[in-house]
Known about the structure:
heterodimer, A: 0% strand, globular, B: Rossmann fold
Amino acid sequence: MTAPTHVSTPVAPVIDRAASARIGRLDSVGYLICLGGIVRRELLRFFNQKERFFSALVRPLVWLFIFAAGFRNTLGVSIEPPYQTYVLYEVYVVPGLAVMIQLFNGMQSSLSMVYDREVGSMKVLLTSPYPRWLLLLAKLIAGVAVSVVQAYAFLAVAYFWETDIPPLGYLTALPAFLASGLMLGAIGLFLSSLVRQLENFASVMNFVIFPMFFASSALYPLWRIRESSETLYWICELNPFSHAVQLVRFALYVQFEPVACAVVVGVTLAFFGMAVVAYDPGRGIMARRGGPAGETP
Amino acid sequence: MSAEAALRVEQVGHRFGTRAALDDVSLDVGRGRFAALLGPNGAGKTTLFSVITRLYNNQTGRVSIFGHALDREPSRALARLGVVFQARTLDTDLTVEQNLLYHASLHGIARSAGKERVGVLLDRVGLADRRHDKVRTLSGGQSRRIEIARSLIHRPDLLLLDEPTVGLDLESRADIVAIVRALVREEGLSVLWATHIFEEISPDDDAIVLHRGRIVARGRAGDIGAPGEALADAFRRIVAEPGRVAA
Lengths: 297, 247
């Protein structure tokens, strides 16, 4: 039997039932404290990974400075809303690249959920007495906060590249960025429940990020795609990423696109709902996929 | 079984596919008791902990914490429960204080109250001087002590520890055991301690032996074996007997 060798110096009791039964709160203030704490932790982690911030910024800038410049003369874009005149290709591509940052960020958050599950910090999160939807919502909001900061950092650099965005557009785009960030984050959250191991994440890149990005209105207007393939056009039309891009594109030019907005809100609710179900202890992945090594088949 | 057990597990079963990880498991942890959950690797200890912490719903049976049923009142039940998981679950890039405050917020504790708690708990685990250090600079034993502090931040009355001393050197192991035993002795904390290290168990502890998802022996640790038989020998004999089930 082990004799206690370490005895700490006399200190205040750590349970101290006499002082108060509980110090945590389960009311609405407690909800906000919990939400704030999760968002804060994600931001702390984000600022500890500066390379993540810069790599997220470099990717769209490479597209803008090299790809778009190269295609400048080949891919002129004719007049279509929200543009009121002919625009250069790099002007057209800026909103799509900004939302691409959010797409990558959404998947990155999803990756960190899978990582959290592998290292066990997800278990710590889920032992919180607050409802699961609140914990997942907090994760989602934290990811969106990071993605919006990144998108604006990109716009700030792109500003010096003749992007023609009206000053007010930067403000009106904020709710659009929040909505598109929520949608892409919710998709990522749901995907994180499907991916069992970190190694499988490469397939998410191949089967989700690339098709979503390329089969969308981010890089080329959809009428151009329709000229070459009707099927591809409809795939792009049905791709929620196209609608996120269009919502942001219109908002950057101080216009509102109701169909895109409806699609983005609808897809957000659907995927968040599915993520909540997936993380439910009775029905979802934690029960089927989270079994400990040696105790699962 | 007493009416006011800190933890009550009644006829809990859990299957992964066709394999039963837990089969008709019932146990009580009395208030202010140190209960040891013994079992070889793969016995179902971690699955049982996952059910008690509501990572999985119990597929059959019932779990209650201080009378709060986990399926009907999960918030009230979880609010009374502190957990130290087998895997290391601190954020290594964050400081000790940031880790603890994050956990405080998960239990609805505001930052000011949380900071006060962090001070008290770090004193208790003897690491007050490491408050602003990043977790990656701590040793394995120190990280474990921080995890114990973290599990206590919301003043739980029941503490679950899943093989908390695995991978630690002898001195760190003794430290962890001493800290938790002091909490039981001085503050009436109830503890369920999963382990397969017999040196961590005292003869007066309650002991429950889990094997292949079933409870095969239970009672006062000193009484588990035959008279004069060491607990370790009794354990080896019990888990070697095919089909043995506790009465």
